[in-house]
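User: I'm putting together notes for a lab meeting next week and I want to include a structural view of one of the chains we've been expressing. I don't have a solved structure, so I'd like a prediction I can at least talk through. The sequence is below, exactly as it appears in our construct file.
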Amino acid sequence: MTTLSDIAKRAGVSVATVSRVINEYPDVNEATRVKVKKVITELGYGSGALGKGRDGVKTMAIGVFYTVGHLTHPFFKDVLEAFWQVIAKRGYDMLLFTLSSDESEAEDFNSRAVGRNLDGILLVSVPRVDARIGNLAIGSIPCMSIDLDLVGARAGYLCSDNVAGSIQAMDYLISMGHSKIAFIGDQFQTKPGHDRLMGYRRSLDEHNLPFRPTWVRSGDFSEVGGYEATKRLLECEERPTAIFCAGDLMAIGAMKALHEAGLNVPDDISLVGFDDIDLASYVSPSLTTIRQRRNEIGERAAQCLLQMIDESQIIPPIVTVPTELIVRESVKSPTETQG
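Assistant: Thanks for the context. Below is the predicted structure for the 339-residue chain, given as structure tokens.
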């Protein structure tokens, strides 16, 4: 299969230049444009990628770009199922594009989308620091992101209200008598991780509780991430009475670390997660958590993207979906545990 790299090599230009020719950017030298178009035609790239934007023909294909390994996370699995249900009713196919963690080995997302003649793009589980997303902000293909604040002329995004959800979790813990609360989560790589940390900090401030950097530990939304972060927390000179994990899988990993240390949840340490994956109600004790409306997120992302495909002049939407506190068995008042 011909790639943009193949075209660039034969034409003697960069991959970025090939992408700009396909997207009809005006800042390409005319001689270079002609040369690249000739090579594209010779190699039969994209079955008519050139001129697609001009004739407006739909291919009825939407591409979902995701990071390798992340679709196994229950949140994304449910979101994509709901997304597909909506676009399928309109006759669209959903094509999956895996993303390597090595950004130097792959074409940018916009180039891959153009090469496959996609009508629209959905980004899931893509870090906000990934350099390959840049051209989507200035590209012509409609794009919606989930949990990634990418904004452009044809790019919008959707996410849960992560700050408010974190405040819900923290306020509940504080209402139960906790003042020594630790945080485990991704702090900078993703919008949800950053926003949930902001909610944690904001709640501490609103309740005049001190922020202790040693009680903030990095985790990657996996069981292993929560497990390792909790082991590091337990090495602190003073132990927190509660841990707020920015993801349910991390909370489940935290449970394992606490159990191995001879500590009981919630008798010794209370625990709150975020997501409300199905497993949260089956672990023991069942996990108090913040529910994300996964079906609504997938459905609304699909509706927004389809509207952008149908209406070229629409302003790309930015959508925030409310969260909900789900109280189960993993939180107890510290006065109860001490008594």
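A couple of points you could mention at the meeting. The domain at 162-292+325-338 is CATH 3.40.50.2300 (Rossmann fold). Confidence is low (pLDDT under 50) at residues 51-55.

User: Perfect, that's what I needed.
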